[in-house]
Amino acid sequence: MKGGQSTLLRSLLALIAAVVLLAGSANALCGVPQPRLVCAEYFQKQAVVTARLVSIRHFAPKDRDDYYLFTMETEQVLRGRIPQRFRVIEENNSGRTGIDWNRGDSYLLFTSYAAAERTWSLESCGNSGRLSESEHVLQEIRELRNPGRGGTIQGLVRFDPNATVLIRGIHRDLKVTAQTNQDGEFKANVPSGSYTAWPTHKGMQFEVDLMSYENPRKIKMENGRCAQMQFNALERKK
Protein backbone atom coordinates (compact mmCIF):
# COMPACT_ATOMS: atom_id res chain seq x y z
CA MET A 1 0.00 0.00 0.00
CA LYS A 2 1.38 3.41 -0.94
CA GLY A 3 2.25 5.90 1.80
CA GLY A 4 -0.55 8.34 0.96
CA GLN A 5 -3.15 5.59 0.87
CA SER A 6 -1.88 4.17 4.15
CA THR A 7 -2.07 7.56 5.83
CA LEU A 8 -5.62 8.05 4.57
CA LEU A 9 -6.64 4.59 5.78
CA ARG A 10 -5.24 5.23 9.26
CA SER A 11 -7.02 8.58 9.42
CA LEU A 12 -10.27 6.88 8.45
CA LEU A 13 -9.73 4.22 11.11
CA ALA A 14 -9.16 6.92 13.71
CA LEU A 15 -12.38 8.65 12.62
CA ILE A 16 -14.32 5.38 12.81
CA ALA A 17 -12.93 4.75 16.29
CA ALA A 18 -14.10 8.21 17.38
CA VAL A 19 -17.59 7.54 16.01
CA VAL A 20 -17.73 4.22 17.86
CA LEU A 21 -16.73 5.93 21.07
CA LEU A 22 -19.43 8.52 20.57
CA ALA A 23 -22.04 5.87 19.88
CA GLY A 24 -21.06 4.14 23.10
CA SER A 25 -21.75 7.26 25.14
CA ALA A 26 -24.66 9.60 24.59
CA ASN A 27 -22.98 12.24 26.72
CA ALA A 28 -19.36 12.60 25.72
CA LEU A 29 -16.74 11.90 23.07
CA CYS A 30 -13.70 10.62 24.92
CA GLY A 31 -10.16 10.20 23.82
CA VAL A 32 -7.97 7.19 24.42
CA PRO A 33 -6.38 6.01 26.69
CA GLN A 34 -9.15 5.87 29.22
CA PRO A 35 -9.84 6.52 31.97
CA ARG A 36 -8.27 9.92 32.53
CA LEU A 37 -5.46 9.59 35.04
CA VAL A 38 -6.32 11.21 38.37
CA CYS A 39 -2.71 12.30 38.89
CA ALA A 40 -2.74 14.03 35.48
CA GLU A 41 -6.08 15.83 35.82
CA TYR A 42 -5.42 16.83 39.44
CA PHE A 43 -2.37 18.91 38.52
CA GLN A 44 -3.81 20.21 35.24
CA LYS A 45 -6.98 21.79 36.63
CA GLN A 46 -7.06 25.09 38.51
CA ALA A 47 -9.15 23.74 41.36
CA VAL A 48 -10.26 20.41 42.78
CA VAL A 49 -13.15 20.69 45.24
CA THR A 50 -16.10 18.96 46.81
CA ALA A 51 -19.26 21.04 46.45
CA ARG A 52 -23.03 20.80 46.92
CA LEU A 53 -25.38 21.48 44.00
CA VAL A 54 -27.66 24.39 44.92
CA SER A 55 -29.58 25.05 41.70
CA ILE A 56 -29.84 24.14 38.00
CA ARG A 57 -30.78 26.53 35.19
CA HIS A 58 -31.23 25.70 31.51
CA PHE A 59 -30.57 28.21 28.70
CA ALA A 60 -31.41 27.86 25.00
CA PRO A 61 -29.87 30.79 23.05
CA LYS A 62 -30.43 31.00 19.30
CA ASP A 63 -26.78 31.42 18.36
CA ARG A 64 -25.25 28.40 20.16
CA ASP A 65 -25.97 25.03 21.73
CA ASP A 66 -28.28 25.10 24.71
CA TYR A 67 -26.49 24.73 28.05
CA TYR A 68 -26.94 24.29 31.79
CA LEU A 69 -25.58 26.36 34.65
CA PHE A 70 -25.09 24.54 37.94
CA THR A 71 -24.69 26.74 41.02
CA MET A 72 -22.40 25.03 43.51
CA GLU A 73 -21.59 25.67 47.18
CA THR A 74 -17.99 24.81 48.08
CA GLU A 75 -17.59 22.28 50.87
CA GLN A 76 -13.87 21.44 50.76
CA VAL A 77 -11.02 22.74 48.59
CA LEU A 78 -8.55 19.97 47.78
CA ARG A 79 -6.39 21.98 45.38
CA GLY A 80 -6.21 25.58 44.14
CA ARG A 81 -8.60 28.44 44.92
CA ILE A 82 -12.29 28.83 44.12
CA PRO A 83 -15.13 31.05 45.44
CA GLN A 84 -17.45 29.77 48.16
CA ARG A 85 -20.26 29.84 45.60
CA PHE A 86 -19.52 29.27 41.91
CA ARG A 87 -21.23 28.18 38.69
CA VAL A 88 -20.33 25.26 36.43
CA ILE A 89 -21.30 25.37 32.75
CA GLU A 90 -22.18 22.28 30.73
CA GLU A 91 -23.27 22.47 27.10
CA ASN A 92 -25.93 20.06 25.91
CA ASN A 93 -23.79 18.33 23.24
CA SER A 94 -21.19 15.57 22.86
CA GLY A 95 -18.96 17.35 25.37
CA ARG A 96 -21.28 16.68 28.30
CA THR A 97 -19.73 15.09 31.35
CA GLY A 98 -22.39 12.43 31.85
CA ILE A 99 -22.68 13.34 35.54
CA ASP A 100 -26.06 12.66 37.12
CA TRP A 101 -26.83 16.10 38.55
CA ASN A 102 -29.33 16.34 41.45
CA ARG A 103 -30.01 19.35 43.67
CA GLY A 104 -28.73 18.91 47.20
CA ASP A 105 -26.18 16.23 46.28
CA SER A 106 -22.42 16.70 46.73
CA TYR A 107 -19.87 16.27 43.95
CA LEU A 108 -16.13 15.95 43.49
CA LEU A 109 -15.13 18.42 40.76
CA PHE A 110 -11.90 18.87 38.79
CA THR A 111 -12.45 22.32 37.29
CA SER A 112 -10.88 25.34 35.59
CA TYR A 113 -12.18 28.87 35.13
CA ALA A 114 -13.75 29.68 31.74
CA ALA A 115 -13.17 33.43 31.51
CA ALA A 116 -15.34 33.93 28.41
CA GLU A 117 -18.35 32.46 30.22
CA ARG A 118 -17.42 33.71 33.70
CA THR A 119 -18.08 30.21 34.92
CA TRP A 120 -16.11 27.07 35.75
CA SER A 121 -15.85 24.10 33.38
CA LEU A 122 -15.26 20.36 33.68
CA GLU A 123 -13.48 17.86 31.43
CA SER A 124 -16.02 15.70 29.62
CA CYS A 125 -14.06 12.49 30.23
CA GLY A 126 -12.42 13.35 33.53
CA ASN A 127 -12.77 12.15 37.10
CA SER A 128 -15.47 14.56 38.29
CA GLY A 129 -18.58 12.87 39.65
CA ARG A 130 -20.98 12.31 42.51
CA LEU A 131 -19.05 12.42 45.80
CA SER A 132 -20.68 9.25 47.10
CA GLU A 133 -19.21 7.36 44.12
CA SER A 134 -15.73 8.93 44.21
CA GLU A 135 -13.96 7.24 47.13
CA HIS A 136 -11.36 5.59 44.88
CA VAL A 137 -10.57 8.97 43.29
CA LEU A 138 -10.32 10.64 46.71
CA GLN A 139 -7.89 7.93 47.82
CA GLU A 140 -5.63 8.68 44.85
CA ILE A 141 -5.80 12.39 45.69
CA ARG A 142 -4.77 11.65 49.29
CA GLU A 143 -1.76 9.75 47.99
CA LEU A 144 -0.81 12.72 45.77
CA ARG A 145 -0.50 14.93 48.83
CA ASN A 146 2.49 12.86 49.96
CA PRO A 147 4.14 12.20 46.62
CA GLY A 148 7.35 10.36 45.98
CA ARG A 149 10.13 11.91 43.97
CA GLY A 150 9.45 12.68 40.32
CA GLY A 151 6.47 11.86 38.13
CA THR A 152 5.28 9.59 35.34
CA ILE A 153 4.99 10.21 31.60
CA GLN A 154 2.70 7.69 29.95
CA GLY A 155 0.36 7.25 27.03
CA LEU A 156 -0.36 5.37 23.84
CA VAL A 157 1.14 5.02 20.36
CA ARG A 158 -1.63 3.91 18.04
CA PHE A 159 -0.98 1.61 15.04
CA ASP A 160 2.56 0.70 16.19
CA PRO A 161 3.17 -1.67 19.14
CA ASN A 162 6.95 -1.62 18.57
CA ALA A 163 7.78 2.07 18.93
CA THR A 164 10.32 3.56 21.33
CA VAL A 165 9.34 6.83 23.00
CA LEU A 166 12.27 9.20 23.51
CA ILE A 167 11.88 11.57 26.48
CA ARG A 168 14.29 14.51 26.72
CA GLY A 169 14.80 17.09 29.45
CA ILE A 170 14.35 20.67 28.21
CA HIS A 171 16.51 22.41 30.81
CA ARG A 172 18.70 19.48 31.83
CA ASP A 173 20.82 16.90 30.06
CA LEU A 174 18.53 13.94 30.64
CA LYS A 175 17.35 11.33 28.17
CA VAL A 176 14.94 8.46 28.95
CA THR A 177 13.45 5.86 26.61
CA ALA A 178 10.23 3.90 27.03
CA GLN A 179 9.25 0.89 24.91
CA THR A 180 5.62 0.41 23.93
CA ASN A 181 3.96 -2.89 24.86
CA GLN A 182 1.78 -5.03 22.59
CA ASP A 183 -1.10 -2.58 23.09
CA GLY A 184 1.03 0.44 22.19
CA GLU A 185 1.14 1.70 25.78
CA PHE A 186 4.27 3.21 27.34
CA LYS A 187 5.31 4.56 30.73
CA ALA A 188 8.43 6.19 32.18
CA ASN A 189 9.30 7.70 35.56
CA VAL A 190 11.28 10.95 35.47
CA PRO A 191 12.49 13.58 37.98
CA SER A 192 10.53 16.82 38.29
CA GLY A 193 11.26 19.24 35.44
CA SER A 194 10.28 20.06 31.85
CA TYR A 195 10.34 17.48 29.05
CA THR A 196 9.45 16.59 25.49
CA ALA A 197 8.37 13.12 24.37
CA TRP A 198 8.24 11.65 20.87
CA PRO A 199 8.04 8.11 19.43
CA THR A 200 10.59 6.67 17.01
CA HIS A 201 10.57 3.56 14.84
CA LYS A 202 12.43 2.85 11.62
CA GLY A 203 10.23 3.37 8.57
CA MET A 204 7.55 5.23 10.53
CA GLN A 205 6.66 8.83 11.25
CA PHE A 206 4.37 10.05 14.01
CA GLU A 207 1.84 12.74 14.79
CA VAL A 208 0.11 13.86 17.96
CA ASP A 209 -3.38 12.39 18.06
CA LEU A 210 -6.22 14.92 17.93
CA MET A 211 -7.55 13.56 21.23
CA SER A 212 -4.23 13.59 23.08
CA TYR A 213 -4.74 14.87 26.60
CA GLU A 214 -1.52 16.88 26.75
CA ASN A 215 1.06 18.46 24.45
CA PRO A 216 4.14 16.16 24.31
CA ARG A 217 6.34 19.12 23.36
CA LYS A 218 5.59 20.93 26.64
CA ILE A 219 5.52 18.50 29.55
CA LYS A 220 5.93 19.97 33.02
CA MET A 221 6.44 17.37 35.73
CA GLU A 222 6.01 17.87 39.47
CA ASN A 223 6.49 15.30 42.19
CA GLY A 224 3.53 12.93 42.02
CA ARG A 225 2.27 14.28 38.72
CA CYS A 226 1.40 12.26 35.60
CA ALA A 227 1.41 13.39 31.98
CA GLN A 228 -0.89 11.54 29.58
CA MET A 229 -0.62 11.73 25.80
CA GLN A 230 -1.33 9.89 22.58
CA PHE A 231 0.34 9.53 19.17
CA ASN A 232 -0.58 8.06 15.80
CA ALA A 233 1.95 6.12 13.71
CA LEU A 234 2.09 6.74 9.96
CA GLU A 235 4.10 4.92 7.30
CA ARG A 236 6.94 7.13 6.12
CA LYS A 237 6.50 8.37 2.57
CA LYS A 238 9.01 6.91 0.12
Detailed description of the structure:
The protein is α+β, with helices and mostly antiparallel strands and 238 residues long. It has two domains: 38-144, Beta Barrel (OB fold (Dihydrolipoamide Acetyltransferase, E2P)); 147-235, Immunoglobulins (Immunoglobulin-like, Sandwich). Helices cover 16% and strands 42% of the residues. The chain contains three helices and 14 strands. The strands form three sheets. Strands 1, 2, 3, 4, 5 and 6 form a six-stranded antiparallel β-sheet that branches. A four-stranded mixed β-sheet has the order 10-7-14-12. A four-stranded antiparallel β-sheet has the order 9-8-11-13, with no helix packed on it. A hairpin with a 7-residue loop joins strand 1 (47-59) and strand 2. The longest helix is centred in the N-terminal third of the chain and has 21 residues, at 3-23. The N and C termini lie close together (11 Å). Residues 11-27 have low confidence and may be disordered.
Question: N-to-C terminal Cα separation, in Å?
Answer: 11 Å
Shape, principal axes of CA atoms: globular
Q: Determine the strand fraction and express it as a percent band.
A: 35-45%
CATH domain class of the largest domain: Mainly Beta
Let me know the average pLDDT: 86
The overall strand count is: 14
Order of helices and strands, N to C?
Answer: HHEEEEEEHEEEEEEEE
CATH architecture grouping of the largest domain:
Beta Barrel
Briefly note the CATH topology name of the largest domain.
OB fold (Dihydrolipoamide Acetyltransferase, E2P)
Share of helical residues: 10-25%
**Regions with pLDDT < 50 over 5+ consecutive residues?**
11-27
| Gyration radius from CA atoms, angstroms | 20 Å
Please summarize the sheet with the most strands. Answer: 6 strands, antiparallel
